[in-house]
Design a protein that fits this description.
mainly alpha
């Protein structure tokens, strides 16, 4: 497998970074959509239906496909470089699993909002909006700065 992936490694890496950017953009947008959704009117209103559609489309068109592509390309990069035994990779992998869990939690909250359930406050959603940024910053530091020390 390595002999197939190594020649296209730069393309795999470029695609991985591009789709990480798409995924992060969506993860930053979705909680803000939730805040605006909850503050824009009661469940069942016309604007409620508009926000439900926006959230669903963001998840369906950008977030979930980008996350899947990030995983496929990331695992391809791991295979090309044979880094599956490296400590830095295990840390990055765990953090990406947490980020994927956050994605799932946000998708589940979108379904709750669509059912008219508003279980989180605007303040809680604003705080939750910081999670992907923090995790992404830690991932970048692990891969760029700490990697030489954690191989």
């Amino acid at each position: 497998m390595q002999e197939i992936l190594l020649p296209i490694y730069p393309w795999l890496k470029a695609g991985h970074i591009i789709f990480v950017i798409f995924w992060m953009a969506g993860l930053f947008m979705l909680p803000r959509f939730f805040v605006y959704h909850q503050e824009d009117g009661p469940a069942g209103s016309d604007m409620d239906a508009v926000w439900i559609n926006r959230e669903r489309m963001l998840l369906k068109i950008i977030l979930t496909p980008a996350m899947i592509i990030v995983w496929v390309l990331g695992l391809s990069l791991m295979s090309a470089l044979q880094v599956h035994a490296d400590t830095w990779f295990h840390i990055k992998f765990l953090l990406v699993v947490l980020l994927s869990g956050y994605h799932g939690w946000m998708a589940a909250y979108a379904k709750k909002l669509a059912r008219g359930e508003r279980t989180l406050t605007g303040k809680a959603l604003r705080l939750a909006n910081e999670i992907p940024g923090i995790l992404t910053a830690i991932i970048v530091i692990v891969v760029i700065v700490a990697r030489p020390y954690l191989s």
